[in-house]
């Protein structure tokens, strides 16, 4: 019995040792499994951080601020009557903008606008407008009387032709069926406005009927449409809203027509401002290149709809092989618009060159995180210098999206434009429109780029123009004083010459018996003497022009020569008078 008991106890001990060995092996596997899970967790967290930064998500920042949103930044001229009478009364512009929490990213906002296209139902009435060149433009109307639940804030007894009309200019390859256009049209029509969407040529289901195509700087169609609507509704106040490329066209049109513009007010939403800067920006980062590719595909789809005409007028093989918007503009837009180069097309079509000549109330809305139209192109100083412009910039919003609310049913910029136009329509500024007969004679202002020959690249990559230094302006003012001094003395000499000639003409005795040549020589003596003096002044003027050229080219050299030049030119006229 004892032997059996010892044998069994020995077996139990052996089993216990084996079980311990098995447990140690499984424990090692468990440690390896935990380590593997920890590494996967680290990789997942790294991916989340990369994804968060890549999509520029700001949910955590919104969470830290208790979802209060960011205030809207307003830029305007301190003496602007537009701000005092209109913008100061706009509650939305002085409030905060909070994007939809689950769309806390400019890319999510923009993608949701393009892919989901959540918008109200709108039924248009189409009218065809035929341009003088044979082109066809589809005008899609939505009258306030056709919208259910239209407000009666306006006088119900007034005639229909006195109802304010809003003209909408869509963006690139967009038309009246785009989601953001429907949001705007529905909002304005319900508030008692008549709205018309001017579709670009070849869009809105309309074929191209001429060899003329639209581009980012083509304002003739907008001008003709506005003139056409003004002729149909001569008593109705006209307003315009441009979005993206449409905003560039609207602002350029306002600057070209100046005080002769027929509009009472306008709004530009997410304008590219400077096409050359936006072209550089959209090819800078990977995420921007994705937008560039999407826009290129849209342009190629537009081209394929009108292949029968574009294949004849453009480099069709290049259009089909285009891999960027710049490629498409090189093979199609540049050729159709008769521009020498793509950069020439971008420079001449950018509305930033026409901001200074805008003469009607204009609201500009842009987002700092716009993934297509970069903030680097926003003309802050130009907008501040013009009393007719209010620039509203938000921290977030994406490109034309600005979705707000939990269900993303509303777009912030639509509400802001609606309120701005409503206040403007009821303000004295709405009666400031001048009716001018005949074509506009206003001259577009010079480009602000030409006024700033120097460029400053900041640490964050933004590019700003730097003007001349204060010393240069002082030196230029002193040169102007010297030039004014010479000009006054020249006027004095010319006045004295006129008196001498009059005296010679009165007191000279001309002998009719003498030859005519001899009498003329006697009269020419004082004239020649004055001419010699003027020639000496002209030589000095040439030296003065040479000095001005040196100052503008080499400011330091011009400053060194300034004392000598002042001393020389201040003594020119007195010495000339003494020689008389």
Walkthrough of the structure:
The structure is a single chain. The chain has 580 residues and is of the alpha/beta class. It has 20 helices and 15 strands. It has helices at residues 2-54, 59-64, 81-85, 106-115, 179-190, 220-232, 245-257, 275-281, 286-305, 307-313, 316-320, 325-336, 342-349, 380-385, 412-425, 448-451, 470-507, 516-553, 555-570, 572-579; strands spanning 70-71, 73-75, 96-97, 125-130, 136-142, 165-169, 194-198, 238-243, 265-269, 362-367, 389-394, 403-404, 410-411, 454-457, 463-466. A nine-stranded mixed β-sheet has the order 2-11-10-9-8-6-7-5-4, sandwiched between helices. A two-stranded antiparallel sheet has the order 1-3. A two-stranded antiparallel sheet has the order 12-13. The longest helix has 53 residues, at 2-54. The radius of gyration is 36 Å and the shape is globular. Residues 153-159, 434-490, 501-521 and 572-580 have low confidence and may be disordered. Keywords: Membrane, Transmembrane, Transmembrane helix. The chain crosses the membrane at residues 30-55, 542-565. InterPro entries: AB_hydrolase_4_sf (IPR050960), Hydrolase_4 (IPR022742). This is Serine aminopeptidase S33 domain-containing protein. Residues 165-378 form the Serine aminopeptidase S33 domain.
Task: Give a quick rundown of the structure.
This is Serine aminopeptidase S33 domain-containing protein. This protein has 580 residues and is an alpha/beta fold.
């Amino acid at each position: 019995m004892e032997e059996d008991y010892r044998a069994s106890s020995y077996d139990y001990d052996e089993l216990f040792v084996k079980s311990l060995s098995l447990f140690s092996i499984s424990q090692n596997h468990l440690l390896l499994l935990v380590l593997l899970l920890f590494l996967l967790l680290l990789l997942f967290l790294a991916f989340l951080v990369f994804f968060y930064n890549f999509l520029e998500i700001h949910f955590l920042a919104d969470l830290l601020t208790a979802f209060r949103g960011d205030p809207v930044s307003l830029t305007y001229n301190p003496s602007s009557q537009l701000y005092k009478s209109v913008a100061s009364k706009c509650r939305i512009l002085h409030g905060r903008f909070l994007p939809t929490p689950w769309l806390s990213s400019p890319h999510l906002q923009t993608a949701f606008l393009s892919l989901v296209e959540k918008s109200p139902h709108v039924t248009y009435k189409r009218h065809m407008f035929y341009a003088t060149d044979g082109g066809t433009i589809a005008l899609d109307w939505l009258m306030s009387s056709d919208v259910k639940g239209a407000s009666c804030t306006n006088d119900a007894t007034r005639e229909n032709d006195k109802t304010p009309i809003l003209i909408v200019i869509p963006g690139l390859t967009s038309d009246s069926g785009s989601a953001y256009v429907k949001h705007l049209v529905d909002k304005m029509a319900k508030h008692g406005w008549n709205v018309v969407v001017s579709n670009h040529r070849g869009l809105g289901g309309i074929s191209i009927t001429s060899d003329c195509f639209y581009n980012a700087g083509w304002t003739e169609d907008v001008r003709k449409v506005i003139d056409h609507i003004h002729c149909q509704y001569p008593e109705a106040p006209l307003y315009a809203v441009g979005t993206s490329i449409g905003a560039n066209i609207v602002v350029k049109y306002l600057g070209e027509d100046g005080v002769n513009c027929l509009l009472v007010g306008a709004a530009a939403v997410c304008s590219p401002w400077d096409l050359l800067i936006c072209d550089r920006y959209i090819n800078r980062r990977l995420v921007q290149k994705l937008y560039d590719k999407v826009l290129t595909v849209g342009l190629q789809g537009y081209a394929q709809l009108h292949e029968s005409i574009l294949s004849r007028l453009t480099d069709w093989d290049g259009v089909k092989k285009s891999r960027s918007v710049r490629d498409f503009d090189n093979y199609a837009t540049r050729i159709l618009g008769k521009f020498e180069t793509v950069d020439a097309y971008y420079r001449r079509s950018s509305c930033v060159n026409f901001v200074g000549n805008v003469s009607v109330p204009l609201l500009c809305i842009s987002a700092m995180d716009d993934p297509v139209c970069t903030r680097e192109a926003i003309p802050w100083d130009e907008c501040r210098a013009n009393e007719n412009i209010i620039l509203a910039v938000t921290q977030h919003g994406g490109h034309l999206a600005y979705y707000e609310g939990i269900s993303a049913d509303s777009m912030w910029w639509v509400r802001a434009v609606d309120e701005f136009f409503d206040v403007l329509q009821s303000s004295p500024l709405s009666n400031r429109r001048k009716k001018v007969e005949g074509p506009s004679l206003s001259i577009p202002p010079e480009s602000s780029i030409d006024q700033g020959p120097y460029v400053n690249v900041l640490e964050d990559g933004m590019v700003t123009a730097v003007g001349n230094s204060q010393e240069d302006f002082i030196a230029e003012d002193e040169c102007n004083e010297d030039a004014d001094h010479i000009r006054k003395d020249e006027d004095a000499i010319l006045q004295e010459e006129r008196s001498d000639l009059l005296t010679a003409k009165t007191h000279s005795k001309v002998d009719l018996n003498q030859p005519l040549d001899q009498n003329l020589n006697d009269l020419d003596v004082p004239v020649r003497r004055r001419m010699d003096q003027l020639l000496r002044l002209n030589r000095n003027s040439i030296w003065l022009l040479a000095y001005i050229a040196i100052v503008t080219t080499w400011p330091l050299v011009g400053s060194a020569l300034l004392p000598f030049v002042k001393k020389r030119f201040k003594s020119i006229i007195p010495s000339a008078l003494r020689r008389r």
